[in-house]
Amino acid sequence: MKKIANYLIPTTSVVAIAFAIAAFTNTHAATQTLGQEQNQQLEMVSVQAVPVAQPVDLSYAAEKALPSVVHIKYVQNSKVQTVEVQSDPFEDFFNDPFGGFFGPRQRGQGGTQRRQVQTPKRTATGSGVIISTDGYIVTNNHVVDGADELTVTLSDSKEYSARIIGADKTTDLALIKIDARNLPAIQVANSDDVKVGEWVLAIGNPLGLNNTVTAGIISAKARTLGANSVESFIQTDAAINAGNSGGALVNTNGQLVGINAMLYSQTGSYSGYGFAIPTAMMNKVIDDIKQYGTVQRAMIGIQGGDVKSFVDSEKEEGREVDLGTMEGIYIQKVVEESAAAEAGLEKGDVIIEVDGQKVTKFGDLSGIIAQKRPGDKVSLTYLHNKRKHTKTITLRNEQGNTQVVKNADLDVLGADFREVSQQQKDQLEIQYGLEVVKINSGKMKDAGVPKGFIIRQVNDEPMKTVEDLQDIVKETSTSSEPVLIIKGIFPTGKKGYFVIQLAE
Predict the structure, then answer these.
(1) CA 426: distance to chain centroid?
(2) Residue 252 region, left (φ>0) first, then alpha (ψ -120 to 50), else beta?
(3) Is 245 annotated in the active site?
(4) CA nearest 200: which of 184, 216, 223?
(5) What is the pLDDT of residues 347-379, one digit of tens each?
(6) E-strand stretches of 314-362
(7) Does residue 1 contact residue 262 with C-beta atoms inside 8 Å?
(8) For 348-360, b where at least 16 C-beta lie within 10 A, e where not — what string?
(9) Which residues are CB-neighbours of 311 under 8 A, at least 6 positions away?
(10) Which pLDDT does position 213 carry in this prediction?
(11) Using an 8 Å Cβ cutoff, are 249 and 238 in contact?
């Protein structure tokens, strides 16, 4: 469970209760001194002013949704890594009094030594939600990221090994799958329809307590916390703790409205509010992963924030600002060659509606655009010099076009790789690297990379395993700058670098 540290005031509710009791006591005392007619009038006023709340039975929702929420066990196996440690001259002398005369020792720079250490095996637990009868499960990216093994346990205690179908760090969502049939898939509701004050249940496996249900209300919508690149959280006061990550937030009908993702806490444990990724965003992310293998991120092409935050910051600097509204998205910058630039939006404009939906804060805008794909058209209503304008724009991807973006595989490089041997490490005085053992037709041949070249870094990331190279190729292929800058050394020891353009 991700944690956002902040401060809360837990005594607020206690004070409110005290005030409520005091008010009731005073009213009751007053009614005893009034006549019968006055009592009747007071009762009529009381009934009209304070509607009687009806009890809420959430047992149906819990019974319906519980079988669809699973326990996920994460395992990252022990690994051997080479690390640099500060050199001890006395230890060096006693270990090798001849100073390496009989062979090279692994040394770093500036009085350091390279040693191999074994990382401990890591385990963690989280939750997930079954969304189809054939084994697809939604959870958080941070629940499965870096896992060597994933074990899913159903509510009936059956266990399955799971594989990752795809994940999206920007929204903190992941799709995994188990080999099973006729599973109890949850019914998914439209999170756009939920209302503040509506009752919800949080279902998951917090603190090692499997199949736990907590209740609360929706406290707010379209919250942004700065934890992920794309956010529009549902805020709830249903208790959420470590282990709830990836679990279900459901309405009173037992339908999924969000995927629990993080808590708002100063201590690391629940102290007031949890946050869930809305299903409207989840549906689009999961559909993209299934169809394209990666999320098709739509971009307007602006940088900015809430109008109120901007106005407040200007006031702190002694400047008065009148934008014609205190709600909306203030545009701080328009990205060149973007959809917004093509539409003529400028710095200082304020977006107030998207497709007829009112936009009051950045979470509203993120939530709407997160459901779109590059090539989709949206209607933007904005204020320019306090005058309202409406334009239709075509959304683009991070690379500035409307084409489908797909994760590139190592095949696109057209080469075979292997980790450097210990002999190569000793000879070239390196700790890691990937040797290009074969060149076929592809991006590497086009860039002039020769056989035998040893890749040390790609985009300033160290390349210790073939998986490292695979990861950087996938990540870069969908970025705004799909370029690989490869640094390394030739077999002779001479350093070199190559630039590979992944996108056409």
Answers:
(1) 41
(2) alpha
(3) yes
(4) 216
(5) 999 999 999 999 999 999 999 999 999 999 999
(6) 329-334, 350-354, 357-358
(7) yes
(8) bbbbbbbeeeebb
(9) 321, 323, 326
(10) 97
(11) yes
Annotated catalytic residue: which of 172, 237, 306, 349? 172
Nearest-angstrom CA–CA distance, 453 and 434: 8
What is the Rg, in whole angstroms, of the alpha carbon atoms belonging to the chain? Answer: 29
Q: At 263, list the tokens.
A: 């808590």
pTM for the complete prediction? 0.73
Catalytic residue among 68, 245, 338, 477: 245
pLDDT in tens, 136-152: 999 999 999 999 999 99
Rounded to 10 degrees, the C-alpha dihedral 163/164/165/169 comes to 170
Question: Rounded to whole angstroms, how far apart are CA atoms 350 and 363?
Answer: 15
Helix-helix angle 36-49:12-33, to 10 degrees: 150
> Is residue 138 within 8 Å of 173, Cβ to Cβ?
yes
Residue 298: helix, strand or coil by DSSP?
coil
Determine whether 172 is an active site residue.
Answer: yes
The predicted structure's pLDDT at residue 24:
29
- Which tens digits make up the pLDDT trace of 253-311? 999 999 999 887 766 666 678 999 999 999 999 999 999 888 999 999 999 999 999 99
Contact, 274 vs 244, CB < 8 A? yes
Q: Which residues of the chain are modeled with pLDDT < 70?
A: 1-55, 81-114, 266-271, 504
Residues shown for the chain: 504
- What pLDDT was estimated at residue 43? 42
pLDDT at 269: 66
What are 254's two structure tokens?
A: 């037992």
Token reading at 235: 């805020």
Q: Which amino acid is at 356?
A: G
Segment (H or E) for 57:
none
As given in the structure block, the two tokens for residue 354 are 């998207």
Which residue of the set 68, 142, 288, 349 is catalytic? 142
**DSSP run (H or E) holding 155:** none
The CB density around residue 254, as the number of other CB atoms within 10 Å, is: 21
Determine whether 384 is an active site residue.
no
